[in-house]
Amino acid sequence: MLDIVFVGATALFVIVAILYVRACERMRGAKS
Amino acid sequence: MTANGWFQILFFLLVIFLVTKPIGIFMARVFNREKTSLDLVLRPIEKLLYRLAGVDENHEMRWTEYTVAMLLFSGVSMTLLYLIERTQKWLPFNPQKLPNVEPGLAFGTAASFTTNTNWQSYVPETTMSYFTQMAGLTYHNFVSAAVGIVLAIVVIRGIARRETDKLGNFWVDTTRCLLWVLLPVCLAGSLVLVSQGVIQNLKPYTTVELTEPQTVQVSGADGKTTSQRVTQQVIAQGPAASQEVIKEFGTNGGGFFNANSAHPFENPTPLSNFFELVLIFAIPSGLTYTLGRMTRSQRHGWAVWAAMAFLFFAGVTVTYWAEAKGNRLLAGADQRASALHSGGNMEGKEVRFGIANSALFATVTTDASCGAVNGMHDSFTPLGGMVPLINIMLGEVLFGGVGAGLYGIFVFVALAVFIAGLMVGRTPEYLGKKIESYDVKMAMLAVLILTFTILGFSAFAVAEPFGTAGISNPGPHGLSQVLYAYVSSAGNNGSAFAGINANTMWYNTSTAVAQLLGRFFMIIPIMAIAGNLARKKTVPESTGTFPVTGALFTTLLVSTILIVGALTFFPALSLGPILEHLLMAAGKAF
Question: Is the ipTM of this complex over 0.85?
Answer without folding.
Answer: yes
